[in-house]
Amino acid sequence: MKEKETITEEENEGARWGIPYGTICNLGQRVYEFWERYKDCFKNKTRNNGEYALDYLEGLLRMETDRHFSEIGREAGVSGQNIQHFMSNSPWSGDEVCCQVLKELKAIPELTTGGVLLVDESCNEKAGDKSAGSAKQYNGPLGKLETSQVGVFFSYSNLNVPQGFWTWIKGKLYFPKKWFDEDKKTLRNELGIPNSLIFKTKIELAWDGIEELTKQDLPYEIVGFDSLYGRDSWLRANVRGIGKIYMAEVPVDTNVYLEKPELDISGRKGRFGPSPSKIKTLSGKLVRVDSLREKADWKQILVRTTERGNLCERFSAFRVWTVYEGLAVDDWLIIREESDGKYSYALCNASDDTSIKRLAWWKCQRYFIERSNQDAKSEFGWDEFQARKYLAWEHQLALTILASWFVAQTKYDFANNYSRDPELLVELKTDILPALSVANVRELLRAVMPLKTLTVEEATTLVIEHLINRTRSRRCRLRKQESTQQLQIAPS
Description:
The protein is α+β, with helices and mostly antiparallel strands. Among the domains are: 9-90 and 389-468, no CATH class; 253-350, no CATH class. It is built from 17 helices and 14 strands. The strands form 3 sheets. Strands 1, 2, 3, 4, 5, 6, 11, 12, 13 and 14 form a 10-stranded mixed β-sheet that branches. Helix 3 packs across helix 4. It starts with 8 loop residues before the first helix and ends with a helix. 32% of the residues are buried.
């Protein structure tokens, strides 16, 4: 390739912002080299379907809408049915992809300290209840009961590295209890839901994920929960049990003790026997966490710098006690007064000499699971996923995590390898320059890997193929209906 003899003003400006022309032009090759590290994850017993993984990954990274099987296939120039088979039926392991991501994360020295593991759920509205895990259940973004799929997701963040770092690393699909009823057996088999799968609450799924990631040596400093998970004493006890620190949001009506309560555990049978069903409190008074605002010693703390200015809010902390299984547990209660006048509360089992600044910083890390969830939906098409099968959900998750990891790595490498011109701070009269966003990286990718523009002939062929597929689909359904009707009228 002949080197350019002149540098345009735009190219020079890109270099000043840490996005040099040559590096941008190499983004397409970067995607390919990234995929090559993962292509063996997509093997099955008969062949390696890795080329479809590359097609799908590129679709998630570059396309802006309609990121589903047929459209991704059209963009890649391959059959949508092949893509559908690869995602819904091919027995490659999504877990293997996630494990490879985790290995790469642990290999980055700057990420071995200061990491935060964040847990939250994300909901996708569904048109019906025939997709794996779909049911009428509470959908947080909609604020009401709606037919939805709900997943419990795990995100890693680290603000100790230049420009910050966050990415999805794991997820688990939640199945409401009725999915394990006998009348759902045929549907479970149709959707490929393993017989070994049993009902687990969202809390139990959250713990399973934390335990698995801890055993895989994910380098994290604390684990953060929203109030759905944080208020659960069992989950907090499990995190304490593995020697980890939690920052657990709790509802305003949570009760705590300001002094260590004296408990009557005389009903316990032996040192290691089960706890009595009811624990009597001999001393100590329960108070609601929101009642402590009046006693708070508020500290104004700079949480982090943002593009909208400095996030600086008021915090206060108390040493408090809760009771779980006959034991008094001491925690920090951290209260945050947010800029809109709302208050939030969290329990944290950090040592009693932990500074309020440190506690405040930890408490504000939950923003990055929300950021990861939003990126997955708006930037990688998570909420456009339409397939019904359980394996398709697992595969979609793995490739979304792969897309998220690619962008996180790219942003990290740009920040570390390409410095920005310090004169920009003077020219723009600011103290910081914004980081590259996920949308920025995808915009650059579309420039070097432009989306396909169809000719009239190609569009016509595509429409005809679509019409044929719809015709075949109807014919298949009619056969099933006729078969069902014949079974219903057959003599006993």
